[in-house]
Amino acid sequence: MPDHPRVTTLIHLPPIGSLLQQAGRPLLESTLVPLALFWVLFTHAGFDAGLLAALSWSAVAIGRRLVMRRRIPAILIVSTVLLVARTAVGLWTGSAFLYFLQPTVQNFVFALLLLVTLGFDRPLLAKLADDFCAFPDSLTGHPHMKRFFKRVSLLWAIVFLVNGATTLAVLATQTVGNYLMVSTAGSYSLVGLGIVTSLLWFHRSMRGQGIRLRVGLPTAARMRVG
Question: Looking at the keywords, is Cell membrane present (predicted)?
């Protein structure tokens, strides 16, 4: 008997511009802006001012969403909770080393959380991915999609472990300014490599299951927009 042809499922994802905007906003709000505010206030007004500026930004970001009744990204909640703890330690000790030691240690904590939640129906990485790319329900609930996130969680556990080890070495040997420059560039390079690897793995994995992803509006929708 002839083999039955594999049925291909076509799933449309948002246009690339929307994907980049959705991915970049949480990253800016939760990490880059607080870090930039800390550095500016640290260099011009002192250590305590830098701490409070970074924390105030995160508080405003969450407060604005509460007032507007918008969903608060999981990454913003996690980063703000951790920033509260960091700020308390920084204000109490006055130590920049201890302040920056905490996000370094958090790399190891995230790696552990990724491994612990592998047993859940949706591991932590799948929930965090919702902040960067809202997948359609037809894809989120697919059994292979769930298996993919369990497997890629192992990759990101390794990314966080390597990032934690390297930033710890830089923190122990460099000044605050050099640490911010080197660790930020190194961390985002490593994270960027992890993202590219994950996307290539994701695309290949879905294609092997007969799931074809198309970025952009469906043809009918494009015709209506035009």
Answer: no
